[in-house]
Every structure is written in C-alpha cells, then in structure tokens.
Amino acid sequence: MATTVSLPLPAAHTSHKYESGLWSWLATTDHKRIGQLYLYTSLFWFLVGGIEAGLIRAQLYGPNGHVVTAQTYNELFTMHGTTMIFLVIMPLSAAFFNYLIPLQIGARDVAFPRLNAFSYWVFLFGGLFINASWFFHAAPNAGWFGYAPLTTRPYSPGLNIDFWVIGLQILGISSLAAGFNFITTIINMRAPGMHLMRMPIFSWMAFITQFMIVLAFPIVTVALTFLMLDRFFGTNFYEVSAGADPLLWQHLFWLFGHPEVYILILPAFGVVSEVLPVFSRKPLFGYPVMVYSGILIAFLGFGVWAHHMFAVGLGPIADSFFSITTMLIAIPTGVKIFNWLGTMWGGSLRFTTAMKFAIGLVALFTIGGISGVMHSSPPSDLQQTDSYFIVAHIHYVLFGGSMMGLFAGLYFYYPKITGRLLSEKLGSLHFWLTAIGMNLTFFPMHFLGLDGMPRRISSYDAGQGWESNNHLASYGALLIVTGMIFFVWNWFSSMRKGAVAGNDPWGAATLEWMIPSPPPDYNFASIPNVTSRYPLWDRKSPHLTSEVPHGSAAESKIDVEIGGLSTGTMPAPSDTALNAVHAHPSAKELGIVMPTPTIKPFIAAFALGSVFIGLILHKNLPIMFIAATVFVLALFNWLLTPLEPEHHSIS
Amino acid sequence: MATAALDTHDSHTGGHPPTSTGLNNTKVAIWAFIGSECFFFASLIATYMIYRGRSLVGPFPHEAWTDPATGHVFKAILNIPITSVSTFVLLMSSLAMVLAHSAVVRGDRKSSKIWLASTAFLGATFLGFQAYEFTSFVHEGLTIHTNLFGSSFFILTGFHGAHVTAGVIWLLTLLFIDMKRGLTPDEAINVDVCALYWHFVDVVWIVIFTLVYLIK
After folding, report:
1. Interface contact A559-B190, CB threshold 8 A
2. Which value does ipTM take for this structure?
3. Hey, are the CB atoms on B2 and A559 less than 8 Å from each other?
4. Looking at CA atoms only, how far is residue B190 from chain A in angstroms?
5. Is the pTM of this model over 0.80?
6. ω before A573 within 30° of 0 (cis)?
7. CATH 1.20.120.1810: does it fit domain A21-497?
8. A508-564 pLDDT, tens digit each
9. Alpha helices in A9-112 (DSSP H)
10. Which residues of A are catalytic, by number?
C-alpha cells in the first residue's frame, strides 16, 4: 500500500455552463458521469430488490407465514428476479462498462456519447415504468421468465403483465443501443498500440458481453413483441385455441435467457480478472486462454437454452444434445477458475476488501457452477427443476458470482471514481457478513430443494422437515442486510473521510490508473501509446512483466511513453503523471475538443418512454402519436447537430 | 519511433486519434446493428416457419379453404405475380442506391439527387404494393386475428415494411440535405451507411419472399 500518496483533491477543472447542478447531469455526454448515473440507479434498485427479498424471507421464515398474501408473494418473487437481473446486475455492469472501457482502452469517451446518454435515460425510464406497477397494485406476478400462455390476456387479465412486458421492452432498447455503442468504441477507439490482445481483460469480457447483448436481445424483443401484440391487439402467437405452440415462448425466451446469464456473469469475471493480478502482484495467468474461454462461453451460451426446458419432454435427441452442450460450457468456465487460481499461485497476495470479494467469486461461483453441471443431466434435472435447488443454484451464480465480482469492482474502482479510498475495516465487515450470510441463506436451499420444497410457493405446512433450513435461510438474509448497511455507511462516509487515493492506490497495471482520480473530463491529456498488456507495470515494476509479450523493436519497452513521460524519467512510482503536475488544465486549455453537453438524448428517451405510457393507458392513440412525433423530431434534431463545437459529424 | 507521436491529437478527429481500424465509427455501429437485426428477423421468420400449416382455420397462403360453417370458399390468398413485381422494384432500388452512393463519391450532384430520389421512390412503390396487398387480404377475410398464418404473416412482413419506411425517411433526409446544400464526397460515408441498411432490408425481403411466397 506504499503507493497511497497524500495529494490535494483535484479541484473542478472546467468552466463551462454545464459544470454542475441538475442540468449538468441531465445534459451530460461524459461517459464517467453516465457511468455514475448507472451506478447509483442500480444501487437504488438493489435496495428495492433487497427489500423484496427480505419480505420473501420473512414470509418463508416459518410454516404458514402471514406476512404477505399469496398474491403479493407472486408479485414479490417476480419483481425480485426482474429487478435484480435487469435493474441491478445488468446496469451495474453497464456502470463499469461506461466508466472503465474508455479509460482502459485509452480513449476520451465512447464512440457515440449522446447515444450513451440516451441508453441511460431509456434504462432509467424502463426501471421506473416497471416499478410504477406497485402504485397501481398491479406489479408483475408471473415469474421473471413470464411464461406464455400464462401471461396472455385470458390468464393474466390485469395490468400486471402489461407493465412487465412493456418495461422489459424499454430496457431492451437501452441495452441494445449501449451494445452497438460499446462494440464500436472497443473496435475503433483504442489508443495506439492497444492491440486486441493487449486490451485489459475487463474490456475484453465487456466486448464479448456486448456481442451477446446485441445478438440475444433481439430474440427476446420478438418474444415480448408477440406477447404485447397478443395482449393489446389480439394476435394469436400464444393463443393455444388457435393452434399456437405453448412452447414458442419458452424457446424464444430461453434462446435469449441463457445468453443472458452469461451477460450477467462475464462482466464480473472481467472485474475479478483485473483485481486478482493486482493483489497477487502477478500478470493474469493465461491471458489468451482467458480471452478464448470467454469467447467460447459466449458461443456455447447460444446453444444450451433447452436445458431450461428438460421438464417439457423434448425427446431423447434434443435432451442429449442440450445435455452435452451444457456439460461442454463448463469446460471454458472451469478453465477460467483454474486460471484465477494460477494467477494467485505464488503471488504476493494482499487481502484487501476487493481481493476478498474477488476470491469470494472464485469460491462461490464454483459451487454454483457445480450445481449447474448437475442440471445438465436430464434425469437429475427432473428431480431438481422448479425446486429450491434451482433457487440455490441461481443465487450462487448470480449473488456468489456476479454480485461478489461487482462488489470487488466497487471497492477496487471507488478510489478512481471518487478520489478517496473506502474504509478497509468496514469493507472487511461487509465482506464477511455478506459471505457468511450468503452461504447461510442459500446453502440450505440445496437441501430444501432435495427435500422437495417447490420454488415460488407463498407458504408451506409444518412437519415436512423444511422449518430449520428456512429458519437458517432467513437468518442468513438478516446477515446480508447487516453487511449492506455497513457497505452503505462505508460508501457515504468514505466520500468525505476516506484516505485520498492518488492516481494509483493499488499499484495496478492498466491505463485507467495513470490518470488522476477522479479523472478530468477528457481522461487523457495526451493519448497514451501502449506497448504491452501492463503499461504501468512496465514502468514501475518491470520485473513483473518480463514474461508478458511486448511490442516489436520499433515500439520496444525502452521507448514506452505514457502521459508524456518516457520510461526511466519517472522520478517516483506514482502520482507524477502529466496531469498531476499541471493540476488539471481544462480541456480548453489543452485544446481538446469534447462533445457538447446536450439535453436531446434525454428528450428523445422521454418521448420514447411516453409512447409506451400511451400504450399501457388502454392504447391511448393521441398520446402515442404525439410522443412518437416528439421522439422522431428529437432524433432528427440530435442527429443533424454536430457532436462537437467546431467539428462536423453525425453520431 | 513511438516516442514522437504523443502530443495532443488534432481536433479534426474529435479529440481522438483516427480510429483503430481506420473504419468510420458509424459504419462499425451499423454493422453491429445489422448483426442484431439478423437475429431479430431470424426470430420472426422462424416463428412464421414453425406456424406454417398449423392454422386451424383459413384463409391459407397457398391453398383454398371452405368454411365448414358458412360454406364460403376462400381462395389461396397469396398473389405471387404481384409480389414478384414489388420484389423486382425493391431489388432495383438497391441498384439505384449503389448509383446514388457512387454519384456522391464522385461529387456528381446532379446524379446523386436523381438516384437518391429514385431509391426513395422505388422503396415507396414497394410500400404501396404492400399497402395494396394488406388491404386486399383484409377484404378477403385475413387479419392479424384470423389465424396463426394471419398473425405471423402480417407481423413478419409488417416489421419488414416498417424497416423499409424508416429507410425511405432516411433516404428522403439525405435527398433533402443534398438539395439544400449538397452532399460532398467527404460525406459519402453517410450515404454508405444508409446504403448498407438499405441493402440489408432488401436481402431480408429476398429471404421472406422465398420462404413465405415461393415455397409451398
């Protein structure tokens, strides 16, 4: 930790009118601000989803629980799943994509800054829309995968499913727009010398995730469109009495749904692959294999969907096929786990909170992965399907995996975002309470499932041997809540009282750590030239990277120049990059052209959302028509205005 | 030497160095978008194919159907000769699109306006054919409510038609800019990106025409 140098917190560095206040956030096109918007919005929904989970655990604490009615219980588990998947893990990952991708690849912003803002506002709108259902006493209630025909109008007559189907449709638009943006950013905006195989592994996993989003979301868009048309306009896609196939939804949904689970986990894998090498003081073990296994996971992820449908009875050939592909996908996943172990092996480990959470992912995701492989065998799956065993599995991979990884990222990158370190003491408490509470909550669910407790039941009778494990699970949930209180306390108190971080508090290796914390709006005063995977270690600790491939003689390690200073001329290990010396010159002073802040993406997103409001208000055509017109006009106005002041382009 | 190239990059590239691949950002994004659209239309087409021949009541696409209740005979509803003409029109619009792009690249403003207008006109003509087809189907008793064929046919071809409509609006916007101030060869990329989209929508129609209309 020798690298934590006290340094005055950088003052605000720009002087234009969009500098502060509400307007500066509404009109921002800065990927770092948008990243923070995603971050705080998803943490808010994490609180909401957590309250829903708490009510579920209160209801199931003992037999014949009376905390909520069966109707409310259906709404709670549906909204808990929907919230945690679409409003927490995905946008929290998106917060990291936004904040980190440009910093890691050495860019000043994403390829389409205004589209980026649009994605966020559409996401915010979608989350508010779907949760507005609570105020109409009509929260979605058919489970997070909303099987049709159960969700068609005859079986779900209320507004509940209307909110769900339209809300997910809105969120899909946000994810797709962000996907095109990040793919273009990573393909086109890398700094000189940042070859694909030199890219930080988080950016690689983000890259792969974007391809999965862009290819999987159109499928669920079609499935949701059919459901929307069936519900609002009387088509027959899921109308069994018209001859429709009741499996159509299941196939379309899981064709999206299985890639989706990798969309949820790969970003966390990426974060952990950044954290482990730094706190092991070793380059990532098997970097190319980590990249290829990520690609293989994404590829195989599109060929395993029917393992969610073994109980349907698809026949021996389909069952065998999907059983084998499911077992195959465990191989690249296992490769990753062994590579993380290989990274730590023989390293000088520092058990910071970020490191603890990262190791937490490695350990807990492995448990979830193993129970996942158990489901790949249809006979065994038939015993476990729709039981608490599945609930245990999904929480080990999504809480033990994704959330642990994302928490590691929050502790790791908090100093970059705020300029100050989170308290390690509170962080440690948070970690241990979460890790113990998480296992206490979800491990007994394996046994509950094997003892025959079905998922999604609002109460159970005494005397079936389910009481003690349900007690344990509810106590565990209490521990998790306690841990989260420490996390929130830590988050806000460290913002004022935390130790000043400096550029690179962890002794990390990638580009985002060479610039000040928090970074100036232009990120890099001069775009760095990259010659290996670990540009900062090349300068500060060259012995760590001696076995990592470097550029040819023409761009050899000796001549590396980062932040305007070349290797060997650096007087101290950190905090001496160009920007710190000059204490943040503004973009204008440096002659850097940054995108003009603009409200248009917000207006476009609001208008697009209003089209859907019109739809749910009993197909209110005037509202829909006006909103659509405003959307098109805002879009035209946006596209025909140049992105930057004196520079002409369409983006 | 790497040491030389590290000054702040000039503003012509928007504060960024030229793109890593040398490709225009919008062009990369439109390719990603087209990849996504492939999965979108694949899902729609797959649904149509799964529901082929599974409608419980008529009218049917390729064979006549007698309503057992009323004795009314519905003839096979698809009109292949007319749709062949509209398919030809859409194919020709792709040719016009290529000529429009080439004219903008050459800086030939007279031709660029003619060919942009022709592309938009041919696209609009295709939409006219589709509007005629839809109304005549409704008159013959096929709506989105009628049967599985009606739902899957109208939604699949309707989404394609919506894409053509968006393309026509895009083309008219380019035409408007060209008439107002002229598209310079530097801006050919904007036409190029529109052309990629237009050709994609055209290719999707060839798949739809083959699977829905030609294969019985």
Report:
1. no
2. 0.92
3. yes
4. 8
5. yes
6. no
7. no
8. 999 999 999 999 989 998 888 888 899 999 888 888 888 888 875 445 443 444 444
9. 21-26, 31-60, 70-82, 90-105
10. 80, 109, 144, 174-175, 258, 260, 262, 273, 307-308, 333, 336, 455
